[in-house]
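== Sequence entry ==
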Amino acid sequence: LARSHTRAVVEASSPLILLGAVLLTPLVTRPIARVAGRFTRRLAPGLGDIGVMHLVKERTRSAYTLALVMIVLSLVLAIGGVHRSYRATQEQSLARALPADLAVTGGQRVDAAYVQRVATTPGVRAVTELRFGDAQVLDQHGPHVFLTVIDPSTFFDVQPVPWSEGSDAAARRALEAGSAVLVPQGLARLVGVGLGGELTMDTTLGPHRFRVAGIYPSNDSQQRVTVGVADARRYFNAGDANVLAVRVRAGADVTAVGHAIEQRMAGNGGAFVRPTSIDKARFRKSLNDYFRLAYSVLILVLAMGLLGLGNTLAMSVVRRTREIGVLRAVGTQRSQVRLLMLVESATLTLVALVLAVPLGWLLSAVILRSSEGVLHVVIPYKQPWPLVPLVAVLAIVSAALAAIAPARRASRVEPVTALRFE
């Protein structure tokens, strides 16, 4: 019940955070605009102060447009942070799930003699056997899990594992000793077990407790528990290997070694060889395509933000027609009036950017936290620092585009016409 309550709170927090940010925007607009104005007023020497002062004076009207721009920029940062975090965890997950350079599947039985022939192929540095199965975790909240069976004596020579808790050496010793498992972070948190704790699974010999010898990061919602080959044969009736993971020698051509294995095994049951880089590229593309869709939606939201900002500036021109006419009457050039509108737009956007950075960080953290409750995966947060300059440039371009039409209208105001304006 407590877990469900926490999950509900996390899922509801994102819209509440956005709502709170919008409501607080009018309160923080004035002080932040004054600070930001120290930089933006330089765009229009002598007149920049007027644009900043007007923005501060009309804070209620400007604040909600600012909030719209702030939300758009914060969403860009939030999605960028989530994307970067998922991508980093995916790389660690792929290193464990797709070890080595080549995956070899036998046409017939993959026995010890078959493994030896593959291992002695020119260009091959190391080979390890992989088996797959499934089991049921019997602990509280215990799910049905997939089993990855490894040979601890060879696996870590082929592919070191990125650990959240544990090490290659400790995992090797524990799996060789028996009654030990390696688990992903999400499963460890789901069942409430830590390094050195015990995980009970249903086996062919009945319920059996396995000691957790290592915890690794994974963005795979399909929980996978890793066991040693000796335990798999004893408790899960494991047979011959399903796949051989092959690491080639330094400097060797992966494709050439793959062809050599296929040719050598042609008369020994055959072999289907696939570079793991193909599967890794497919998984990376799948993740990037998902976030590319999210970025496409953000482009539409950004267009709405530009319309809102442009509308606010246009209304500002209408309200200040008389003021602009006075400025024109005392000798202000059309170009200076255009710069005045640019100052107001730039100040508004700069304030939105300042507020969007912490808001985007907070939204990223909430989204990643919710993925733990929904998908049972733990994604460590990676700050989207490389994205901040890009968002800053996006904000500057947005400010300039939004100011074009209002600035042109303001620069066309004639002094005599403006002075008659009511």
User: Anything to note?
Assistant: Strands lie at 102-106, 124-137, 144-150, 180-184, 198-203, 206-216, 224-228, 243-248, 271-275.
